[in-house]
Amino acid sequence: MNFKNGKPKKNRSLTIVVVLGILLILLAVRISRVPGRVSVQYENYQVVQGTISKTVSGIGRVTTLYKETVFASSGGQITQVNAVIGDIVKKGDVLLKFTSGSEIKAPFDGEVTQVYVKVNEWVNPSARLAEVTDYINLEITAQVDELDVAKISKGQTARIDINALDDEELSGPITSIAKEGVFSGGITTFAIKVAIPDSSGLLVGMSAEIKAEVARAQDVIVVPVEAVQYSDNQPYVWVKSADATLEQVNVELGLSDGQLVEIKSGLTLGQTVSYEKPMVEEQRNFRPGLGGAR
Hints:
mainly beta; conserved putative lor/sdh protein from methanococcus maripaludis s2 fold; Elongation Factor Tu (Ef-tu), domain 3; 3 domains; six-stranded antiparallel beta barrel; 20 strands; 6% helix
């Protein structure tokens, strides 16, 4: 029997089949999103009285009210350093002494957060010597949009929400409003400061939001803002009658907080307002592959 010498010839057809099979498997496991279908749900709301509060808000952080770097009033040699970083000091405590006999004292009660010199070191006039920070008396420094800053005033009470302390309810007076704004990201904001009466549990740098009330409408007729529609700039609502028919009723709007809106005229207590509430239903489906669509 005769045998042919040499390597077996590759089966190119088999290779192509294998590659196509892999591609089909990969295609079968790909998932795609299709646009959500929008279904309309009708909501009925019974007209009631409520209170609407409009506020101006600002985002900021907890900052120190008193933080001071102590400088040398004249040059000389340091003979004594009485404080180290972390020491708690009282106003008037001696922090440093010079060979001349002059002393550097703490400007207020606080904590030593920096010491810039050592014993026997010579310093020049205006050299930094130490830093003292008051971590008890804190404040919020927040940025308020230029469209809102004119609505608030110094001395006005603002509510303080600390992101890290969900259950804390704080408030304090607005102590300052910047006279110059800062332009960033296409908008201008103004820095305002709000005093914190009780700083227990707060740390410098914590994120915070302040809200100052600028308008209030109490015991007024209110409806959801979604219930109000417009025709040629005339606001109206759909009122549901006893026989379930809908009547278009023009209304006069008042204050709004973004969720509810005051109705100054056009509605009475006990009426039912009906409005559409779109609901987006998201769908997932698999691209067809081996085994078909799921």
